[in-house]
Automatic annotation (TrEMBL):
Cellular compartments annotated: Cell membrane
Disordered as annotated region, ranges: 1-20
Protein name listed in UniProt: protein-serine/threonine phosphatase
Domain PAS: 242-307
C-alpha cells in the first residue's frame, strides 16, 4: 500500500552519476528503502496477528481442555453418586431407569454426554439410543479399580458433533464400596473452541492499528530520507558512492576529514601515502597518528588555511584546510595535501617548454625586422643570449655578407657577423673578422654534415681545442664549458654557422637543447637568406642606378655644382639628375623622378636620362625637351604593356615620371626652366634670401596632350639654385608643406656657403631616418661671365666684310692674351662668316666668349643647318666644315627664335690655347674650298 505525503514535490535534481532519475509519484515506492521497510513492517504485523490468533486458539483450547476435565469429572461424579444410580445399575433394566436420568443430567450440566456402563464397559445410556449396549470407547480399567480416569478420546457421534475430546470415567460403588458400574461424562473440543471467537476482533484491530502506525512512520522516514538523499534512488546512491569513492582514492591529492572532537573520519589513499598513515586510522584521534606537529595543528585547528607549505619527511606538502560546518557538517574539517616536490619537476618541465615556445615566438618576431644580413645575424645573437646561451656567435660565409650566392669553396673562411651575450669579454673574434676553421672543427663538420654538433664538455672536445689551442685555453679560463653549433641553411643552401656557448655556472647543453638550437637557426637562416637576396638585388639595382647617374662633374666653369643621392632602404627608385654643358657656355640642369621602385624604375630612368642628353645635344628649348620626353614616356608605357600582354601577364608599363629641366646662360645671367609635375626649385639669393622662383606647374610626363609652360628668371652671380626630388620633403608623417618649410629653414643663410656645404646642411636637416623613397639633391651656384670676356659685333651681309672680321678677331684675341689661337680662330670665323653671308640670311653676327674654352659663334637668320661631308676631288665645295672640325674641339648648330647659331669651342689650358695637331699643309690645301650648306 502506498500512501501519498500530501506535500508538493520539490523540483527533481539529477544525480551526479549522470543517469536520469526515475520519476516517483509516491513516497512509498517498493523499490525505495522506505517502501521495502514498510513491506517488512506489514509482514511483521501480519505474522504477529497470526501468532496472536494461534496463541489465543491454543490457549483457549488448553483452557477448554482443563475446563472440560473439571466439568467432566464433576458431572461424572455427580451422576455416579446420585441416589439410585448404584441400585439402578444392579437392577434388571438399568437402561430404562438410568437413560432418562442421564439425559436430564447431561442437559443440566452442559456436557456432551453422560454414559452409565457396567464394569465390562457396556453402555446402559447414551444420547443416541442406538449406541446403547455397545462397548465404551476409552480406558476403564483404572475406574474398575476404584480410580477416576480423565482422558481425551474419540467415540461415536455426539449431539455436539465430532468426537469426544475430553472425558472422565468414575466408578460407581454400592454401600459396601464395591464397584458395581462406571459413569463417564465428556465435552467435545468443538464445543470448547467457540470460547475464543469473541476475542478475534480485538486481535485484528490491534494488528490494523499497528499497520497504520507502521505506514505513518514509514512515510515520515521516507520524507526524511528523500530530503537527506536529495531525491536519489538507492541504486543511484550506490552508484554515486562508488563514483565518489573511486574519485576520492584515485586523485593525486590527499584528503582527510576530521570530526569536531579531533577524530579522523576519512582518509584517502593519497593522504595515506603522503603522510605514511596506517590502514586502521579511521576513528582514531588525530593526536595519535604520529603526524608532524605543524600538520597535526592544522588538522586540529578551526582556522582556514590556504596553500601553506610544510615539510613532512622528505616531501614538501602544500596544505589547505576548510571547516565543514558550513556545508551541513558537524563542525569538522576537510584538509587537502598536495605534493609540490613531485609537481616541481613537472612544472619545471612545463615552464621550460613554455620559455622555449616564448623564445621561438620572440625569434619569429625579432629576427628579420630588417633586410640587412649583419643586422639579422645580430638579432639572432640577441634573441638567444642570455636566455638560451651565455655567448652566441654567428659566422657567415663571406659571399653571404656581400649578397652573393654562397659556394662550398668558402666554407673554411667565414666572417664573424655577430656576437651576443654578457660574455663579450671572452676572447672571441669580433664582428667583421675572418674566422678560419680546420677540417675537424665542429663548425666545419656541421656545415659538411648538415646537422648540429653538441659538445657537452668543451674540456673533452679535442677537435675544438685543435682549432685554436691558445684561444681555446683562454675561453676555458673564462668558464666556457658547453657548445652547440648548428648550420644556417635556407633552400638547402649553406649560409654559415651559429655557435651557442654556456659557461660553467649554467647547465650543460643536452640533446633537446640541440633540437631547439636547430629550430632557432632554421628560422634565422630564412631571414638571413632573405636579407642576402635583398642585398644582392639591392646592390645590383644600386649599381645599375649609380652607373646611370653622373659619376663626376662635367667640364664647365659656368656653375659650381654639388649633389647628393640617397637610395631608399626598400630598394632603388627612379630618381636622377644631370648637369649637361651646352653650347655658348650654357649649362642644362635636369632633375627627374620615375614613379615606382626597383630595376624597372632604374632602367626607365636610364632611358629617360639618355633621351634628355640627346634632346639637349639638339639644343632644343626647354618646353620642347619636356614635350619630347612626354612622348617617349607614352611610347615606353605602350611597349611595356604590349610586351606583358604577349607574355600572358597584365601589363603595367611605365606609370609616369616627373622632370624639371633648366638652362642657365652665364652671359645673360638668366635661367629658363620648365617642370612636368616636379617639385618647384628653390633659389637662394646672394644675400641669403630663400624664395621659390615661381616656375609654373605642368602635368607629369606620360599624360600627353598638355603643353609645358616655361619661366625665365634672373640669377645674380653667387645665387644658388636648389633642385630636389619629393623624397626629400614628402614624408608620410607630415604634409609636403611642412617639408618645404623645413627645406627653406635649412637653406636660410646659405648665401655665402659653397654648394657642398649647402648640400650637407640640407641632408643633415631633412634626411629621413627610414627612407622609403630615393632622395636626389642638386645645388648649383651661378657664375656670370664678365663683359670683358665677351666680344660681339654685327657683320654686314657682304663677303668683303670677312677681312674686317678677321682683323677684329685678331685684336680681341691679342687683348685676351690668346694671340697663339689667332690663326685657327681667324680661319674658323672666316669659314663660318663666309658661309653665313653666302648661304644664310641677315642679320649676321659674331660673338667670342672666353672661359674654360674659347667659344666662337656666328649667327644668321636662316633656319638651315650646314653638315659635314667628305668632298670628292672634283667637288667645288664641302671642305670648309672639315677645316672647322679640324681646328675646333667641338662644333655644332643651335636654333633660336630668329635663326640659328653655328658655334665652335677651342680648349684653353691655363688660359692659353691647347696644342692642336694641325693637318699637313698640303692636305689642308687639297681640302680647302668654300663651305656648302
Amino acid at each position: 500500500m502506498e500512501v501519498s505525503s500530501g506535500r508538493p514535490r520539490s523540483p527533481e535534481r539529477h544525480p551526479l552519476t549522470g543517469h536520469p532519475r526515475r520519476r516517483r509519484g509516491f513516497l512509498l515506492n517498493v523499490h525505495s528503502a522506505a517502501g521495502q521497510v514498510f513491506l517488512l513492517q506489514v509482514a511483521i504485523v501480519v505474522v504477529l496477528v497470526l501468532a496472536a490468533v494461534a496463541a489465543m486458539v491454543f490457549q483457549t483450547a488448553r483452557d477448554a481442555v482443563q475446563r472440560g476435565r473439571r466439568e467432566s469429572v464433576v458431572a461424572a461424579q455427580s451422576f455416579a453418586s446420585a441416589p439410585g444410580t448404584a441400585a439402578a445399575l444392579q437392577s434388571r433394566h438399568p437402561t430404562a431407569v438410568l437413560q432418562p436420568r442421564a439425559e436430564e443430567a447431561r442437559k443440566r450440566t452442559g456436557v456432551d454426554f453422560i454414559v452409565a456402563m457396567n464394569t465390562q464397559g457396556i453402555r446402559y445410556t447414551y444420547p443416541y439410543p442406538q449406541e446403547i449396549g455397545k462397548k465404551f470407547v476409552g480406558t476403564i480399567a483404572p475406574a474398575v479399580n476404584g480410580r477416576t480416569v480423565i482422558e481425551q478420546a474419540g467415540g461415536p457421534p455426539l449431539p455436539a458433533g465430532g468426537g469426544t475430546d475430553v472425558q472422565a470415567v468414575v466408578p460407581v460403588t454400592d454401600s459396601r464400596g464395591k464397584v458395581v458400574g462406571l459413569v463417564s461424562a465428556g465435552i467435545t473440543v468443538r464445543n470448547v473452541s467457540a470460547l475464543w471467537l469473541p476475542q478475534l476482533p480485538i486481535i485484528l484491530g490491534s494488528g490494523a492499528a499497528a499497520l497504520g502506525m507502521a505506514t505513518a512512520g514509514t512515510t515520515l522516514v521516507a520524507r526524511r530520507l528523500r530530503r537527506q538523499t536529495r531525491g536519489l534512488a538507492p541504486e543511484e546512491l550506490a552508484s554515486l558512492y562508488e563514483h565518489h569513492d573511486a574519485v576520492l582514492h584515485s586523485v593525486r591529492e590527499g584528503v582527510l576529514i576530521t570530526s569536531a572532537d579531533g577524530r579522523l573520519l576519512l582518509v584517502n589513499d593519497e593522504a595515506r601515502r603522503l603522510v605514511d598513515l596506517p590502514a586502521d586510522v579511521e576513528g582514531r584521534p588525530v593526536r595519535e597518528l604520529g603526524l608532524p606537529e605543524s600538520v597535526m595543528c592544522l588538522l586540529s585547528s578551526s582556522e582556514e588555511v590556504t596553500d601553506e607549505v610544510h615539510l613532512v619527511g622528505d616531501r614538501l606538502l602544500t596544505v589547505n584546510r576548510r571547516p565543514t560546518h558550513g556545508h551541513g557538517g558537524l563542525g569538522g574539517n576537510v584538509v587537502t595535501l598536495r605534493d609540490t616536490t613531485e609537481l616541481a619537476a613537472v612544472s619545471g618541465r612545463a615552464e621550460a617548454a613554455r620559455e622555449r615556445l616564448m623564445l621561438l615566438y620572440e625569434a619569429g618576431v625579432g629576427i628579420g625586422t630588417t633586410l640587412d644580413v649583419e643586422r639579422t645575424a645580430q638579432e639572432l645573437a640577441d634573441v638567444a643570449a642570455p636566455r638560451f646561451a651565455d655567448l652566441v656567435t654567428v659566422d657567415l660565409l663571406d659571399a653571404v655578407t656581400r649578397g652573393w650566392e654562397p659556394t662550398a669553396e668558402g666554407w673554411r673562411n667565414l666572417r664573424r657577423a655577430a656576437v651576443g651575450g654578457e660574455q663579450r669579454s671572452i676572447p672571441v673574434c669580433p664582428p667583421g673578422e675572418v674566422v678560419t676553421f680546420s677540417s675537424r672543427a665542429p663548425q666545419l663538420r656541421a656545415l659538411q654534415e648538415r646537422r648540429g654538433m653538441l659538445e657537452t664538455d668543451l674540456r673533452q672536445a679535442h677537435d675544438w681545442w685543435e682549432q685554436g689551442p691558445e684561444r681555446a685555453r683562454k675561453a676555458a679560463e673564462h668558464s666556457l664549458r658547453s657548445l652547440v653549433t648548428v648550420p644556417l641553411r635556407a633552400r638547402d643552401v649553406p649560409l654559415g654557422v651559429a655557435n651557442f656557448y654556456r659557461a660553467a655556472d649554467s647547465p650543460a647543453f643536452q640533446p633537446d637543447d640541440l633540437s631547439f638550437a636547430e629550430e632557432l637557426a632554421a628560422r634565422a637562416a630564412t631571414a638571413i637568406d632573405n636579407a642576402r637576396r635583398f642585398t644582392r638585388e639591392h646592390a645590383m639595382a644600386v649599381t645599375l642606378q649609380r652607373s646611370l647617374l653622373p659619376r663626376a662633374q662635367p667640364d664647365q666653369d659656368t656653375l659650381q655644382v654639388a649633389w647628393r643621392y640617397l637610395p631608399a632602404e626598400a630598394g632603388v627608385g627612379g630618381d636622377w639628375f644631370d648637369v649637361i654643358p651646352l653650347a655658348g657656355m650654357r649649362v642644362a640642369l635636369v632633375m627627374g623622378d620615375v614613379v615606382g621602385h626597383g630595376l624597372q624604375a632604374a632602367a626607365t630612368m636610364g632611358r629617360l636620362r639618355t633621351a634628355v642628353h640627346n634632346f639637349s645635344t639638339l639644343d632644343l628649348p626647354v618646353d620642347e625637351v619636356l614635350g619630347n620626353l612626354d612622348d617617349l614616356v607614352i611610347r615606353m608605357g605602350e611597349e611595356e604593356r604590349a610586351g606583358d600582354a604577349a607574355d600572358g601577364h597584365e601589363g603595367m608599363g611605365v606609370t609616369g615620371a616627373t622632370c624639371l629641366y633648366a638652362v642657365y646662360d652665364p652671359v645673360a645671367g638668366t635661367c629658363t626652366m620648365a617642370r612636368a609635375g616636379h617639385p618647384e626649385p628653390v633659389a637662394v639669393w646672394p644675400d641669403g634670401t630663400v624664395a621659390c622662383p615661381g616656375v609654373p606647374a605642368s602635368p607629369p610626363l606620360g599624360l600627353g596632350g598638355h603643353p609645358f609652360e616655361t619661366a625665365e628668371i634672373a640669377l645674380p652671380e653667387g645665387s644658388q639654385l636648389v633642385l630636389y626630388t619629393d623624397g626629400l620633403v614628402d614624408e608620410r608623417a607630415h604634409d609636403i608643406d611642412v617639408g618645404m618649410e623645413r627645406l627653406r629653414n635649412a637653406l636660410a643663410g646659405s648665401g655665402g656657403r659653397a654648394p657642398e656645404e649647402t648640400c650637407q646642411a640640407v641632408i643633415d636637416a631633412l634626411k629621413p631616418s627610414h627612407a622609403s623613397d630615393d632622395v636626389a639633391l642638386l645645388v648649383a651656384c651661378t657664375r656670370v661671365l664678365p663683359s670683358s670676356h665677351v666680344a660681339q659685333w654685327a657683320v654686314p651681309p657682304d663677303p668683303a666684310a670677312v677681312p674686317e672680321v678677321r682683323e677684329r678677331c685678331r685684336r680681341t684675341l691679342r687683348e685676351w692674351g690668346l694671340g697663339e689661337a689667332g690663326f685657327a680662330t681667324e680661319l674658323i670665323l672666316s669659314e663660318l662668316v663666309t658661309n653665313a653671308i653666302r648661304y644664310g640670311s641677315p642679320p649676321v653676327g659674331v660673338r667670342l666668349l672666353r672661359g674654360r674654352c674659347l667659344v666662337c659663334e656666328v649667327s644668321d637668320g636662316s633656319g638651315t643647318s650646314p653638315r659635314l661631308r667628305r668632298a670628292a676631288t672634283t667637288d667645288e665645295g664641302g671642305r670648309g666644315l672639315f677645316l672647322v672640325a679640324q681646328f675646333a674641339q667641338r662644333w655644332g648648330t643651335r636654333y633660336t627664335t630668329h635663326g640659328k647659331v653655328i658655334w665652335t669651342e677651342q680648349l684653353l689650358v691655363d688660359g692659353t690655347p691647347a696644342a692642336t695637331s694641325h693637318a699637313p699643309v698640303d692636305f689642308l690645301l687639297d681640302q680647302f674650298d668654300d663651305l656648302e650648306t
